[in-house]
Amino acid sequence: MPPRSNPTARQARLGAELRKLREAAGLSAREAGALLGGGAAQISHIEAGRWGVSADRIRQLASYYKASNVRLINELCAMTDERVRGWWEQYRGLLTPGFLDVSELEHHARALHLLQITYVPGIFQTEDYARALFGSAIPALPGAQLNARVEHRTRRRQIYDRKTPPDTVAIVHEAALRMRYGGRAVQRAQLEFLAEVAEWPSVKLLVIPFDADGLTGTAQSMFYALGPIPELDTVQIDAAFGGSFISANALLSVFRNMFATLTQTALSVDGSRQFIHKLIQET
């Protein structure tokens, strides 16, 4: 079987965790490859997410590496057992991999922490709001691409239809709520939908008003997917030419602390609901 040309973020994460275990053991790729009857190239492909790996081989490598984190090993093995072909695969080849990676992370996440400064979190955007955002691209997107992006974005929230949806904390700055993407009517409909979202049992929607005291110095939006254990958390950061995924433990700790601080800065749940209803009346 040829190597995967474009491993998903989840496949790449599995390989990256195996690389961390090998490096912690002080072993070279050649030494690890010899254990599997191959060589450095085999381990390199596995650690880059280009080749699949079985749970038995993960346990074999973990034993060789003398890895002691049993929970991590068990969760890595569980990742190999999943054969889910998610709904997002329908868009492969039409949308860039980053869109699909976010959907996959949301599907597998135990919980989600979202921070948005200049627009409503993607998973809670209405169709018209998403179309206004994507429709402002320069140069303009082809019609099929625009429709696919809007459809994919609105389908993402089907995770909240599950029996056990991911617990979600979404922090939205007042700036995002006041931006009139698509005009006044689109903004009002978006705010009305957010008011509904704020009542969902699994969603805690918090607003940071302009006059909030003690705001930390960040204007960086963030998508934080909590894994089954903290070591498998993933952060996605937006950039001008696509998002990047972060999994280094030191950086994850920084983002956890930042989010915790912002949670304390934001209005309470009830205060945030009242704030959104006030904006609806003003729009």
Q: pLDDT under 50 segments (min length 5)?
A: none
| Overall number of strands | 6
Task: State the helical fraction.
Answer: 40-55%
Which word captures the global form?
globular
Question: How is the biggest beta sheet arranged?
Answer: 6 strands, mixed
Average pLDDT for all residues: 91
Query: Helix- and strand-based class?
Result: alpha/beta
Beta-strand proportion: 5-15%
Strand order, largest beta sheet: 3-2-1-4-5-6
Q: What is the succession of H and E elements?
A: HHHHHHEHHEHHEEEEHH
Number of helices: 12
Terminal CA distance reads: 57 Å
Radius of gyration using CA atoms only: 21 Å
Mind explaining what this structure looks like?
This protein is α/β, with parallel strands linked by helices and 283 residues long. Helices cover 49% and strands 11% of the residues. The protein is built from twelve helices and six strands. The protein has helices at residues 9-24, 29-35, 40-47, 55-65, 70-81, 97-108, 127-135, 143-155, 174-178, 184-197, 249-265, 269-282, and strands at residues 111-116, 167-173, 203-208, 222-226, 234-237, 244-246. A six-stranded mixed sheet has the order 3-2-1-4-5-6, sandwiched between helices. A hairpin with a 7-residue loop joins β4 and β5. The radius of gyration is 21 Å and the shape is globular. The termini are far apart. The mean pLDDT is 91.
Q: Could you give the topology of this structure?
A:
Blueprint: H1 9-24, H2 29-35, H3 40-47, H4 55-65, H5 70-81, H6 97-108, E1 111-116, H7 127-135, H8 143-155, E2 167-173, H9 174-178, H10 184-197, E3 203-208, E4 222-226, E5 234-237, E6 244-246, H11 249-265, H12 269-282
Parallel strand pairs: 1-2, 2-3
Antiparallel strand pairs: 1-4, 4-5, 5-6
Helix pairs in contact: 1-4, 2-3, 4-5, 7-8, 10-12
